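## Example pair
The file below holds two records. Each record gives the amino-acid sequence first, followed by its structure token line.
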Amino acid sequence: MGVSTEVRGGAHRRALYAHAPARLEYRVKVPEAGRLDVAFGVLRDDDPVTFRITAAREGDQAETLLEESYADQEHWAQRTVDLSGLSGQTVTLALEVDAERAGTVALWAAPTLTGDRSIEKPNVIFYIIDGGAADYMSVYGYNRRTTPNLERLAAEGAVFEHAYSNSSWTRPSTASFMTSLHNSVLGGIRGWGAHPVPEQAVTMAEHMHRAGYQTAVFVSNPYAGTLSNLERGVDVFRDANVTPKSASSAKLHQDYWRWREAYPAEPYWVHFQTVDVHPKWDQTRDAPAPFAGLFSSPELRQTYYEWERQLAAAAGFTHVPWLSLEALDKTGINYAAFFNAARSLYDESMAHQDYQIGQLVERLKARGEWGHTLLIVAADHGSAAAHLPDPFPPGWGPMFRSSVTRIPLIVVWPERIAPGQRFNQPVSMIDMLPTLLDLSGLPMPEVMQGQSLAPLLLGEEGWEVRPVILDEFGIEDTGELSGYIEVIDGQWGASLLINPSPSGRLSTLSDIPKSRVGDYKHSRQRRPVPLLLYDLWNDPYTQHSLHEERPDLVEKYTKFLEAQWEVHQALAKQFTPGEESPLTPEQLRTLRSLGYIQ
């Protein structure tokens, strides 16, 4: 007997496994309106397993509550057992399996005993818009009405005006906010395959599961799921390759509501990570009706796709995951027109994403769950794909450019967090794990690099202003980390190059640590100095580094970031980096469609 995560019908579930014949007993007190929700699973179609659930009061014979033979290896069999007749009684609840062939493996997926809600802990919805840039949201002042529903949510809760992701793309960023540990502490990134979060780093899902929460994850980017081993501690996990990508949120919401019907108990924690607005590099980019055409025309979309094909050919790609100025020069395409078309498509997808969040909230309200739900809406990084810089930025620019890592952060908890709050203090996604645990009344992680935002949200003492740290590192063939560590410190932003690669290849402005650029053919400019310095108040899109004008600040932030790097290296010794593993065909298709690989 043991516990493992098993997949049936695309759904990963945390399951008890046993070799028939077997019996698992639990002495439990049945809550009011008690029920047991569970799914059956088997390994073989030709070897049926009989699943049986019994209950026995002290000194009484066991009563069989459910008995069923099952032999479908492709799907879970979801079942509910009514225990309301035993409410308030202490019984021996037994899960039994039998089979004709001894040793046959049977799976009990996420057996959950529940009843009427009787605790004060909130349900938690941790909602990540993959590639959602605050710069393109009307809730943050954007001049197109892309997020009216988020505006309404903002009026019900708190908005952080200057929130940042800690890296510029999904894999390092998601692992960081799920553990409150920076990318370099977790071991950096090598290649494109699975790169699990170290086992010693306790994830948000594991914290919540240990605290008695039901846990579920619904994502459309494998770097936010199985490729990072983030199914740990999750009862039900769905890593869905959705087509079209712009409808990701609608599909994941359907999966969520199906889960809630199967497991209606509370409290629960759920992590969404949608890809509605993530750059897509297949022909499934148009937002669903009626949002397609909201900011563009059919003619503009077709022109944009043709420009993209031309740019791909000029750059030597089948598609253009990262636009190069060289390719624009070769084709003669006006980059202002190209970016404005890209921005319109992005904005339409954002409007659809916003609508789906609004629908989710309305349904929660209709079910009477909204009053005890803590909702956090954020992003893993921004998006430079639709940003029109002038002049066109060099490839070695910093991660903290506004369109790249400034993200939304909206927190709503009715009657607990005062509505209509807006905070100007800089914060980052590294703070999400301690914040969520603090608001839920749960213990803090033993090791973390963020701090709880709960004091700010609740109007209490205990929060301190800290510089925001970002980092992003690839693993060299020597095993050494190479990349950037950066700081946002009020007016100033500084980016320090650590261990430059001998080849001279460096990350691009927004997305690629050194380990990811080897297969790319387009040229890169070399960073002129190890530390770049920017005045973020007057130059939020980091067009002009002040490293020549302000040597005093260069010296200050070089020392500061070198000290931070030493801290990260020391912390990293507590963790054993996970081993990279090959991609499955399905994962390859998903990553290609999201523009990560050719």
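Second record, same layout:
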Amino acid sequence: MANSEEIVADKSPNSAKDNDSSNGVFPMQKASFNKDTFKSLIRLLKYSSSFKGQFIIVIIMVALSTVSGVAATYMIKEMFTAILGVRDGLFEISRFITALISIIAIYFSGTMAQFVYTQCLANIAPGIMRKLRDDMFIHMQKLPVDYYAKHQHGELMSLYSNDTEAVREMLSQSIPQYLSAIFTLTGAMIMLFVLSWQLALIVLGMLFVMIAAVILLGKFSGKQFVAQQRFLGDANAFIEEYITGARVVKVFSREDIVSSEFAVRNEELRKASYKANGCANITMPVLNNLAYFTYTLVALVGALLTMNGTFGATANGIAIMAVFLPAARQFTMPLGNVAQQMNAILMASAGAERIFKLLDETVEVDNGYVTLVNVNYNENGSLTESETITGQWAWKHPHGDGTLTYTPLSGDVRFFDVDFSYVPEKPVLRGISLFAKPGQKIAFVGSTGAGKTTITNLINRFYDIEDGKIRYDNININKIHKDSLRRSLGVVLQDTNLFTDTVLENIRYGRLEATDEECYAAAKLAGADDFILTLSKGYSTVLTGGGAKLSQGQRQLLSIARAAVANPPVLILDEATSSVDTHTEKLIEKGMDSLMKGRTVFVIAHRLSTVRNADAIVVLEQGRIVERGTHNELLEQKGRYYNLYTGAFELE
């Protein structure tokens, strides 16, 4: 939407100050579990409200699965007791069989519970991610054009890939692991105290040591994982930018330089990944060694307690130890899982913060209440609103007293002393006053950065003016609903965006309710019909890669056809022929001449030869209008336009 003049304005010290990351998009988040982390996680969990029933099932099934594991371990004691004949000194076959059957039943129920909750999670996680991506995409449609001018596309794409994937992994893996850990720790601790409160105290003491180790290591590794996410987004943005500009890179033989620049970013990502994973990889060995130490300590103390008769009969002590040792191991295992998942949760929280930062961006403000409606003309000349498409449009203007007026859409656009700047105290337009009567062709010329594209952006209300007034059909443009305003405008840009779809649907994009016949007529009007029919499937040919297999001129003709099918009363041509050859330019101009008939047209001129037939040529310099007149009038004045024209072309 913005050309070089807007881009220069956007990259200001102020905008840089707002974003303190190296890529200028999202600042690096502070890691570890802080208030913002919990806010993001809680906000994320709110997305699960439509899955409450399934979440309850998950919690119950996770509890059943983990408790069954603890119960099965306890039943092993019954088997040992039966084998060792603790009661009568004989092998108790019935007790053994009962314990064995109980263990099989418990493990089977635990397996079924695990199957149920994994199936639920297989539905919950994608469902939440679908809702989250929908909200992100819908919100992005409401953001102002300025947002896209200030943010790299690759970084925004990273929100939909890396960050959402981190969130998905947390929902599908980390949360179940944490629930399982809570139930396992609770159940195992109860069982340990039932078996031996003395040994249970040793295990509990070592648990606090392990928790301290997890917190300490997690605090450091969390910061590194967040840094890794940031550098990953930076690398993705760089890759996306240079894939898009691959042709330019090759034209100027910059492959080695680009590769070196990427290598720097890739090395930053490697270092961050090394620090993050290196610290995370230490966590499990530390916990394992503490667990082995706990295991050894419990075995030693348990042997002493068995020998001195604390557990009663020696056989009973052996049975207790045979169960207590694996139970103690079972007790420490969840902590290792928690440690592993902590980093995943930190990564997910960092991703969630970035996602919610996008969702919290201020949407485009629209206080307009004047709308564009279809109308019928009555015999007495009055207008009546129509629910059907009539091809006749009017502005529906509600007033404070409850009355409605309908103003015919004619395309009269006027600026009154308009001031505008992208960055405070750096004006781009100053005191702009101009008019375009219905059906007039107004051309803007001037050096790069003079404010040509900015004027057309203000007509579209991509940006709002600071001072002055813009009136459209004698209605203050701020009163017009933006959707209605933009529906009344047709835009043909220098850079044509074609979507992955058929040629016909790309033309229909200008007006989705247009019939096939209307699209064919628009293509013929634009002069695109001839080349379309030479394509393999004609209008049904699917375009990919932004129409990469089409020439620049062919893409531009489709853009003109798209504007033609919209049938707008006002047309904006933003250097539409600046990047094509002379022959193609003539084809495009022929299509545009057909499109411009009867319309108010604003032309941003790259080649002055294309504006000689304009009703008025507006010459801009440093945000001010310095000259206005027809081609011949301005040449006679021998001012700025004369210098521009004679400097580029020989007078005929």
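Notes on the second record: The radius of gyration is 36 Å. The first strand starts at residue 371 and ends at 377.
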